[in-house]
Amino acid sequence: MTTSETIHDEDVRITLIGAGTIGLSFAALHLSHLRDASRLTIFDTRDDLASYVHSNLPKYLPPEQHASVSQIKLATSLPSAVGKATIIQEQGPENAAFKTAIWAEIEEHAPEDALFWSSTSGIPASVQSQKMKDASRLLVVHPYNPPHIMPLLEVVPSPSTSDAVVERTVSFWRARGRTPVVVKKECTGFVANRLAFALLRESIHLVRSGVVTVEELDRIVETSMGPRWAVAGPFKSYHAGGGAGGLEAFMKNIGGTVQACWDDLGDVRVGEGQGWEEDIYAQTREAYGVVDTGLRDRTTKRVLEVVEEEKSKG
Amino acid sequence: MTTSETIHDEDVRITLIGAGTIGLSFAALHLSHLRDASRLTIFDTRDDLASYVHSNLPKYLPPEQHASVSQIKLATSLPSAVGKATIIQEQGPENAAFKTAIWAEIEEHAPEDALFWSSTSGIPASVQSQKMKDASRLLVVHPYNPPHIMPLLEVVPSPSTSDAVVERTVSFWRARGRTPVVVKKECTGFVANRLAFALLRESIHLVRSGVVTVEELDRIVETSMGPRWAVAGPFKSYHAGGGAGGLEAFMKNIGGTVQACWDDLGDVRVGEGQGWEEDIYAQTREAYGVVDTGLRDRTTKRVLEVVEEEKSKG
Q1: Among A209, A215, A222, the residue to mutate for chain B (most B Cβ within 10 A)
Q2: How many CB atoms lie within 10 A of CB B36?
Q3: pLDDT tens across A135-192, in order?
Q4: Do B262 and A182 touch (CB under 8 A)?
Q5: Among the four residues A182, B6, B92, B266, which has the most C-beta atoms within 10 Å?
Q6: What's the CATH number where A47 sits?
Q7: Distances (CA, A) of B307 to A201, B29, B196
Q8: Domain span including residue A121
């Protein structure tokens, strides 16, 4: 990467398109790295944008940063929102027509070397860039919710995205202590959601089969693979489980049980009349009411801190 | 539960059948709760049992407990090993014939009200108890490896196991600050492994499809669902993700992507000639060599501590 391709922090101007929960969480993340909050612009077409941002964004910020909220630029006109941006990060409606149209419009008004990032969880850059003149500028930067807490960013280029754009994106996030991982092929749901949804499907199946309740299933995950995978992912964990012989020895020992489980995994479907929804929704509401996400986020942050701390001790 | 059913700590005498890694890890866990280490017996038919236990068990223990290792009773004769035990916990070979035979023999020599627990990951109590006179005494107590660190114990009764035995088992583990969860039906792999293996299958599929490497996949899990699920299991997490509308609102928003991922999940198989093994084993060895499980266990312990700490703050 040549120096001219690097975004120097003092030159960063970020425009967020869409001020939903993901937008506000990214705003909080960016604010914690920008010396000058006026280099952050939030664009949204909602009428009450100023009062909405001023009353909701502080919830994502430590008290000492609340004052910076008033310095953020708010915009309801797209051309002026993106005219001077070096990074444009989109988290609008999950709707291909909306995204395809807005990127063509953004491209018209944004500086030539600005980076274009979409936070979409499902619409690949190759679809979103269809009306752009230069599709090499756009890629997906998919966070794990909420992005101001979770380190992961799935960086998913389309086949048209240029390598330089991927590199500038990865280096931006690394410099901020986050964990960008480049997903080499556009695929349905990218990686994190596919993995989590595979486990969710089996979770629904087991609850529906009367094996455990919703709450028991959560407790099982919270006291086993959750803390384990916070420290070592599935391959590393099973590799350790095999001792000196590694993953291969593990599969030699327990591969029969692994295959028997795979053969027996349940198949459930999403949608009206599938039978499981009403039961699972009711159990979940009953168990948790409205979740205290403040507590969840504080705890998750401490989990990430101790993992880093122990790693740095070696 | 009546008082007569409770095991009072001062009366506990535990015999572990099998001194592999699970056996030693359970020995370490029990030692940290027993005031008198001579109330723990380890039975194993290996010739070098004494030197093996004395050189390996201390690795699982904090330094101040090393001295207690020499007070543990070691046994190579089954009748004398179980004759006075109140709890007999088996982690021998994963082999139905072995387990069926040993429980019949244990039943002959153990006190009438001793609890019988198997650590098996795959052979249900209804199979293991087939040659017992009284099948109501046996159940599975399946740990998540290593049990001296991980709180979860899957308690899996057979249809014959008595409620009193389940209750005494759960209350024993609760009193030791662990998390026993009763699995209501015997099913292949119980719950934790089924869930983890569902995610593992998709992990292998994504690596094999060239979407990410083994190491990138682990990093994705370690920086997203791992720390999240250490704090809130999948149902609670998605319930929070739906805001005030909960899981139902979450599925309304993103159910289309969930189903699209489910439809697209890969199917891989375990076994010679399946193609993925060589590649995945090589990548994993290359990435990790031999994993430092000491570091992993210390970090996991701290993760569990901060989760408990924040929970108790509310």
Answers
A1: A222
A2: 11
A3: 999 999 999 999 999 999 999 999 999 999 999 999 999 999 999 999 999 999 999 9
A4: no
A5: B92
A6: 3.40.50.720
A7: 26, 20, 21
A8: 3-182
